Amino acid sequence: GAEVVFSVDCTKLKEHFLPGKREFDRIYFNFPHCGRKAGVVKNRQLLAGFFHSCAEVLAQDGEVHVALCNGQGGTPADQPRREWHNSWQIVAVAAGAGFILSDVHPFKAETIHGYKCTGYRSQDKSFCVEGALNHIFTRSTAPLCFSPVSCQTQLGNQKVSFQVPQVLVDKINRGFLEVNSSHPVRTIKEKLSAGLSQAFPLQNISSCLPLLHQGHPSGVCHSNIFWTTLSPGEAPSTEKMSQGLADTLLCSHFGQDTDENVQEAIPKQFYLRPSLLPHARAIIKTRTFSPGTLQVLSGPVFRKCRITPHSMPAFHEMLVVLAVSRGTENSCVQMLVDNMKTTMNSLHQGVSGIKPSISLQEATSFGAELGDFAAFERQLGEIQHFLSVGTDTDPSGCCVGVIRTAPDELKSHELVVVSASLNLDLLAMLLCGISDWRMLWTSDSRFLRQFPEGELRLFKSFSLYPPSYVHDVSFWLPGREEFDEVAFHTLARRVSGEMVVSIQLRDDFQQPGTGRRSLCYRVTFQACDRALGSREAAELQLHLRQEIQQQLGVTLR
């Protein structure tokens, strides 16, 4: 009962089927080959034409199955694996047509009734299919269009709109912590809160925390801050600003409020909150809390940072604050840590699937290995304990939280305030086996479908072996001042739409005589959730070079 069509050109599928018959759920191509002794380049071209043709006739949720002999694909699934240049580079070729590799498994001819492997070098004889693999491709989500976005928030006692930095456009107002969300960061936050409530009375005060602060954050490196401007016509009135200035100042400074800080706050400079700690300190200063009750704040925070596997320009922070009687703070801190350890172990045990063992560790000293999260937290004040999660592959662990006591000026004769800050995104990665933080922010519905509401599972990536593209960029610095690497990394994030996964300094050269300094960086482009082809990566590199010259004032080499 099936229709069989002959003499079909696999690179022009649309021409062989009427418009009403073009929505195929599956397209199979078993062992494609140009014929005779065609080299790898010609066969890549064949696959490129085939995938572009599939994009015109495949249903939105359809699949493309391509079977290749062992080693041809060039992926880690091939055993043994050929050198990249000697393979068909199937994942990169498919990416050029908007497809991602979603599954790969052994090709078993014996399971297909009536199938026979013939056509060895265009002859009617079989060829070896031992170790052959079936590659299953699906459509990628379309590249995001980062148009300018304004966002509304509370500033003092007035609502204002501000321009969202382009690098954060897809990370503002995502609602991951909302009541109807099934995102793993919310599940972890809710389960941690439930665990803490077993030991302490608990109160959530996360509603209406402003995204925007005004002034100059003392103690924090300004290159780590996302500065922004209010939308045209949105500048707060002088009267309303003076009414709300006291409240704003409480949320604007990380250190002690002095007259000098007040003067610095008067210029209308605005920045996205890098931490929830100022909100907690505002609560402490106004004494609007009950001693012995755990206050829980949560929400997204924003920090400029270098590009590393665990460094995030946006993540969800959970901050718990506890006021205790003076002299009992050490025992309360230990109770807090023990409770978190117990809850973390319970969360880990509840994750379905085979997973690496993890452990919540407590440290009193800071090391570089604890990562950028801990490094930034140190800028916010003295830390008593670092909380890190160790795994089988990384026993030393990754810092996911810190515990500190409030500064002396916020203490009273009777009470000491203890706070614990946790990076929920890092916890979600470690608990659910998510190797790339960008996956937490994907717009692809296949991510959230793996996490039913209230349940944590081991994540299975729907984009396997994404290709990476390496480009170098070299430039002369404009003067003798130190180069701002954080600004460079942030620029690369913005230009590429978070497609840059690594920036490494390859050479630092100073010209004899003139003293001019030149830097050379190696930039690696790679997507985690969508197709990224070599042509698009090359265009991103070209755009990055132009923006580096315009925005950072360097001279390209």
UniProtKB/TrEMBL annotation:
It comes from the Eukaryota. GO terms for molecular function: ATP binding; phenylalanine-tRNA ligase activity; rRNA (uridine-N3-)-methyltransferase activity. SMART domains: FDX-ACB. The keyword Aminoacyl-tRNA synthetase applies. It holds the Pfam family BMT5-like. The keyword ATP-binding applies. GO terms for biological process: rRNA base methylation; translation. It catalyses: tRNA(Phe) + L-phenylalanine + ATP = L-phenylalanyl-tRNA(Phe) + AMP + diphosphate + H(+). Its main location: mitochondrion. GO terms for cellular component: mitochondrial matrix. Its EC number is 6.1.1.20. Keywords: Aminoacyl-tRNA synthetase, ATP-binding, Ligase, Mitochondrion, Nucleotide-binding, Protein biosynthesis, Transit peptide. It is found in: Mitochondrion matrix. Residues 464-557 form the FDX-ACB domain. Belongs to the class-II aminoacyl-tRNA synthetase family. This is phenylalanine--tRNA ligase. It comes from Prunella fulvescens. The gene is Fdxacb1.
